Amino acid sequence: MSATTLYFYVDESGNFDFSASGTKHFVMTAYVTTEPLFAATRIARLKYYLLSQGVGISNFHASEDSQRVRNQVFEQLAKLRNLTAHTLWLKKDTLRSEAKSAAAIYELAGLEMARIAGEEANLRNAESVVMVFDKTLIYREEQAFLSKAKAVLSELSHPFHIYFHNVSKDFNGQIADYIAWSHYVALERSEFRPLAALPPELTKNLVSLEEAITLKRVTPSATK
Q1: Can you list the alpha helix ranges (DSSP code H) found in the chain?
Q2: Minimal CB count within 10 Å: which of 32, 117, 136, 154?
Q3: Domains of the chain, first to last
Q4: What number is the average pLDDT over the span 127-145?
């Protein structure tokens, strides 16, 4: 296999509210592709088509898009290639009190994503790794997480780069949003249609995860 760059676009679904009004679950998804331009072009083409049809969409966001728009996004996801996804979830009420913060959850899930990135890079003989995390944390928290993530990825024998971007402004980030949301609604309210609409490559589980905080990998069968 020829050397390549793996791009990991990481987004989350659920919130960091630990009160009774908060979400019961937190989901983090890494959408992985070697062809970000190909994927972005397909999603961009859909956006501009919708604009020509009178649908004033600025970006795709699964929890806010109409069902008509979602259906068309899922159609495009089915046509993508050279991709996979990793999804981690946790039930928030199982967390220890000291772990109930945005920074703590992000570190637990994000560092596991960094470990997964390293494993996948070695498996695919990747030339380099790019990880783009959603810009959720404040700057101080970002830097603390970045330091730990770099320590995890420093074991790789090739370059890696980690960024914090507003993933909603990147078409690949919007793909990650759709994957995370699909798993989230299956967990949160037993809504399985979005998950079933994803191609198998985006629901595969390559790593089994069991930790004391009940951070687990989600599969379609695990939610039924």
Answers
A1: 36-52, 67-77, 102-123, 139-153, 171-189, 193-197
A2: 154
A3: 5-223 (3.30.420.10)
A4: 95
